[in-house]
């Protein structure tokens, strides 16, 4: 965000003003005001977005979802300048033995749900906690990630207080920030991954799950629907954001081993179609078109 999204902090326009070569920007994330933002702040953010994304130096803008393509159109970007290139799926990490790692981490005989990535409101952690209230006692929930460096809202403390208020202290674990070696261990013990996001512009944590063929339960938002249009069996979509309906959906999948196998195959198919190599080739094609 080049210093922030406030007009007096953002330096993207100054950077773009100084460039004298053709420019392609990959917009991994497009800032939008939270629901509580007043009209003046909303106007200021829209002004910054328009100054940056409509800058004449930009020959093309790459986004990861059709939803973000429509958002750029709404900001005022010319349609011909916008290209959709799916978020790349990384190469899978070598994973340790599943059962041995479950024993090492204290999860023997337990079924593990994991929500990966930075702890931020748009990831849907609170919904995952509400689901846990009615899931079987042998199911544990991992929040595998730390506080986002830019988050100064006290969100993590709020989540921990929610865990206590729901009496889930023995069934929910916060791992904190994970170095690469530890990520592999928590991937190995995950039975089902959760992605109950309220919004996403292309998630690195979801990409990691797909890379390893882990069954993923996701929220019914447009970017997830786009993935399912591409690879229909790659995700298991929740029927709504209602906690009991979500819990019923997760419980059914935990018992459905053939359904999990189908999701693993679908995830790996999507990972092959949208590897980082494929993303690089698509991005290179856009650069060559501009030149």
Word description of this protein:
It is built from twelve helices and nine strands. It is α/β, with parallel strands linked by helices and 291 residues long. It has a six-stranded parallel β-sheet with strand order 6-5-4-7-8-9, with helices on both faces. Strands 1-2-3 form a three-stranded parallel β-sheet. α4 (98-105) crosses α7, α5 (125-132) packs across α10 and α8 packs across α11. It starts with 11 loop residues before the first helix and ends with a helix. The mean pLDDT is 93.
Gyration radius from CA atoms, angstroms: 20 Å
Main sheet: strand order: 6-5-4-7-8-9
The fraction of residues assigned to DSSP E strands is 5-15%
Shape: globular
* Poorly predicted tracts of residues: none
- What kind of sheet is the major sheet? 6 strands, parallel
The CA-CA distance between the termini, in Å, is: 26 Å
The run of helices and strands is HEHEHEHEHEHEHEHEHEHHH
Mean pLDDT: 93
């Amino acid at each position: 965000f080049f210093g922030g999204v406030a007009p007096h902090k953002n330096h993207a326009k100054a950077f773009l003003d100084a460039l004298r070569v053709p420019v392609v920007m990959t917009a991994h994330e497009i800032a939008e005001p939270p629901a509580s933002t007043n009209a003046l702040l909303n106007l200021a953010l829209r002004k910054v977005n328009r100054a940056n994304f409509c800058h004449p130096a930009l020959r093309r803008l790459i986004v990861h979802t059709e939803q973000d393509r429509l958002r750029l159109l709404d900001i005022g970007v010319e349609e011909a300048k916008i290209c959709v290139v799916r978020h790349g799926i990384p190469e899978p990490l070598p994973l340790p033995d599943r059962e041995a790692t479950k024993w090492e981490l204290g999860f023997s005989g337990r079924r593990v749900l994991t929500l990966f990535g930075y702890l931020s409101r748009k990831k849907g952690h609170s919904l995952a906690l509400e689901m846990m209230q009615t899931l079987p006692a042998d199911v544990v929930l991992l929040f595998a990630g730390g506080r986002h460096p830019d988050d100064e809202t006290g969100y993590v403390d709020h989540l921990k207080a929610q865990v206590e208020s729901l009496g889930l202290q023995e069934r929910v674990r916060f791992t904190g920030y994970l170095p690469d070696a530890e990520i592999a261990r928590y991937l190995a013990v995950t039975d089902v991954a959760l992605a109950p996001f309220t919004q996403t512009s292309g998630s690195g944590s979801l990409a990691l799950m797909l890379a390893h063929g882990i069954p993923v339960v996701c929220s019914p938002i447009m970017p997830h629907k786009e993935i399912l249009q591409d690879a229909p069996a790659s995700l298991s979509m929740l029927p709504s954001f209602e906690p009991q309906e979500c819990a019923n959906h997760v419980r059914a999948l935990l018992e459905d081993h053939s359904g999990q196998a189908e999701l693993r195959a679908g995830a790996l198919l999507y990972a092959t179609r949208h590897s980082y190599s494929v993303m690089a080739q698509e991005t290179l094609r856009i650069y060559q078109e501009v030149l």
